[in-house]
Amino acid sequence: MTTTITITGAGGQIGYALLFRIAAGDLLGPDERVRLRLLEIPQGLGAAEGAALELQDGAFDLLEHVEVTDDAAVGFDGCDLALLVGARPRGPGMERGDLLAANGGIFGPQGAAIAANASPDVRVTVVGNPANTNALIAAAAADGVPAERFTALTRLDENRARAQLAQTLGTPVRTVRRVPIWGNHSATQFPDVSHATVGGEPVQEALAQIVGDVPTWLEQTFIPRVAKRGAEIIEVRGSSSVASAASATIDHVRDWVRGTDDWTSAAVVSHGEYGVPEGLVSSFPVRSVDGEWRIVEGLELSDWARRRIDASVAELQEEREAVRALGLL
Ligand code: NAI
Question: Is the CB of 245 under 6 A from ligand 1?
Fold first, then answer.
């Protein structure tokens, strides 16, 4: 079988880190061939074409075909998996409204092009920021495509949270499970350890032995560390997170397509779960069953967790209101 995968912003940094892992079979496994469509804006075409030449030189067994284009109708033609990475970054002096408007001008038309050209069971993952609201805009413009097919990436935040817990506990990251991210992919996100386990035991009990006062450690150390990890990477590396973002994108799409055996995190459309207003694209604990994300329901939330989630969801609501005011929804 062959899967057609469209990557927008394929000439950018995350695109460059994604393409070779997809071609090597990390996304869909060793038995699934891939056809790649690299969608760029005219200024990015050269970089995408260069990446396509390198893909050719990789001589990947699984790679059927690579096409580079700046035409969304061509880019999304027959697309099974769309990875929307290309976005407009916040420039100097740009207000939040300007940023939302600029990205609305990208994600609205891309949503419409997906509806018109992609395969009927297309699955869309938005990486480009502000990812949750970009996914909302694309879904709203994609007439006839269920909103459940539009998701935004919060897996990098979850991976960061699990890694921080593993490091603190001195345990391999694979032993740390069930650390969902709630809300927006932004500084307000809530990485939630209340149901997390390490080696099957509650994380909070293990943490208490190491950090003492767990609530204080969560408030003052863990949550800010996870939420500001992107800034830390920029400071140390001199450039934003790229390979880890690409890796998390692979994790998200692979789990969506191939299923999960435990919880993970993804920003998906709310139907009112946990009081999150209907229609918002918010991060939840999810499982993937039969190719669909299902929100893990019935979790008990402390008052503190509730306040944290509400604050992030309020930010998503503000973004939706701003986008509505701009006529983008
Ligand atoms: P980059 O600037 O290296 O690449 C972006 C590429 O997108 C450029 O080649 C540009 O030409 C292209 N592009 C811009 N508008 C486009 C359009 N309308 N159609 C197609 N391509 C378009 O940026 P990088 O580092 O690859 O990051 C991409 C996005 O991912 C950024 O918005 C960044 O904030 C976001 N990001 C999201 C993360 C998440 O966890 N959700 C994590 C890390 C980054």
Answer: yes
Rounded to the nearest angstrom, the gap between the alpha carbon of residue 294 and the centroid of all alpha carbons in its chain is: 16
Within the chain, which residues score under 50 in pLDDT?
none
| Claim to verify: residue 240 and residue 315 sit in the same structural domain | yes
Cis before residue 146, ω within 30 degrees of 0? no
- Which of 152, 178, 195 finishes a domain? 152
Atom of ligand 1 nearest to the CA of 72: 19
Provide the CATH number for the domain around residue 121. Answer: 3.40.50.720
ipTM for the complex shown: 0.99
pLDDT per residue as tens digits for the range 40-86: 999 999 999 999 999 999 999 999 999 999 999 999 999 999 999 99
Predicted local confidence at residue 48, as pLDDT: 98
Active site annotation includes 195: no
Q: Decide if 161 contacts 285 (C-beta within 8 A).
A: no
Is residue 209 domain-shared with residue 229, that is, in the same domain? yes
- What pLDDT does residue 72 have? 98
Is there a single domain that holds both residue 124 and residue 250? no
**209 in a known ligand binding site:** no
**Same domain for 77 and 145?**
yes
Cβ(155) – ligand 1 distance below 6 Å: no
Residue 95: what pLDDT? 83
Whether residue 40 has its Cβ less than 6 Å from ligand 1: yes
Which of 19, 71, 127 to probe ligand 1 with, by most ligand atoms within 8 A of CB? 127
Domain with 285, as residue range(s), is 155-320
Q: How many CB atoms lie within 10 A of CB 321?
A: 11
89 and 177 inside one domain? no
Q: Which of 16, 37, 85, 103 to mutate to test the pocket of ligand 1 (most atoms within 8 A of CB)?
A: 85
Closest by CA position to 122, among listed 131, 113, 109: 113
Residue at 32: amino acid letter? E
Contact 142, 132 (CB under 8 A): no
pLDDT at 96: 80
Tell me: is residue 9 an annotated ligand-binding position. Answer: yes
Q: Whose CA is nearest to atom 16 of ligand 1?
A: 86
**How many structural domains are present in the chain?**
2
Domain boundary among 152, 173, 206: 152
